[in-house]
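The following record pairs a protein chain with its ligand, aspartic acid.
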Amino acid sequence: MSWNAERLIAWGMGAAIVAGGAAGYVWGPAMQSVTWMGELFLTALKMLIVPLVAASVISGVAGLGDVRGLGRMGGVSVAYYATTTLVAVAIGLVMANLWQPGAGVPLGQTANAPKPHVAEVGATDLILSFVHPNIIGAAAKMKLLPVIVFCIAFAAALSTLGERGRPVLAFFEGLNEAMMTMVRWIMALAPLGVFALIASRLGAAGGGEAFLAQLAGLGRYALTVLSGLLTHAIVLSLLLWLVARRPVAAYLGHVGAALMTAFSTASSSATLPVTMEGVREAGVPREARRFVLPLGATVNMDGTALYEAVAALFIAQAYGVTLDFGQQLLVLVTATMAAIGAAGIPEAGLVTMVIVLEAVGLPTEGIGLILAIDWFLDRCRTTINVYGDSVGAAVVGRLLGGGAR
Ligand code: ASP
């Protein structure tokens, strides 16, 4: 896409977020009539995810050459994911200790809140989620982690085949290019889609006044999460500037459309095609972006990790439970795991929070306390999740010494 078209769409999306917010605020539930327009945009993006993930991971990994190249890329990426996620949780813990958002919150709210749908998820489920007995079944259910693991192994096998592997690789290269072209086509719909997604969701929340009332009820908690997310965005920007050596404003110009898509869809996976396009426009080396972004969209969730820590401490404070240093360390570890385990779909973090709550012995019903505004905080944390992936691609690309392509 040309620079001008890219900029025009990004500005259009920015205007659509403001207009969608205003329309949802004023007209409230009536705006649910445009839900289908948002669905159309979201579903069109989702339609690309599986072929795009497969093609980009296979062509990216096979392009690394041999297993040592894969080892280096994997090692640096995992180090980046782990460090930034742990920093995010630490920021969340500091903020929750400073702001004490749960102190004095009436527990009666849990009784009125809709029952949370909490599934039992344990630490071993996390390990098992890397594999799936049927790769087509995993793709059909959009379980991306096993698909990525399969594609990494497939590409590694392909690169050992020499000449015989080349036509297969050329096929996936072509598939990848075609998918990226389709992403650019779908982006023409983005301003309309974003407008509808924001307006209809605010409408579903009952309009501006109802939303503000919900926000006021949980204002201190929301502020704690938001100030933590903002602090982490600054940390990521510093990494981008100091380690990846990229001017932050220019990079944000390229990935801005992805960040706005993340905010509107609350899904890192649905945003992945747009993230890949933005990071490509920013000139990040292709192996880095084709490997780091799909894996990052499923396992690297800084915003989710930070939110899990704040929410766990909020629930503890509301129940009058004091978590000592050791227990907060346990929150640090389990919130990181919960973020890795969360799928890149709306409100997935709410489900995996059970891991954190159970580890420190807090009642899982506590989730009911934060349900009311989770849809809004979900959008904010998803934006940081996608920013973390985008910065990761630039950092990994830089550390592995690739030039811009
Ligand atoms: N919605 C988030 C994402 O897709 C996950 C979550 O925190 O619920 O990145």
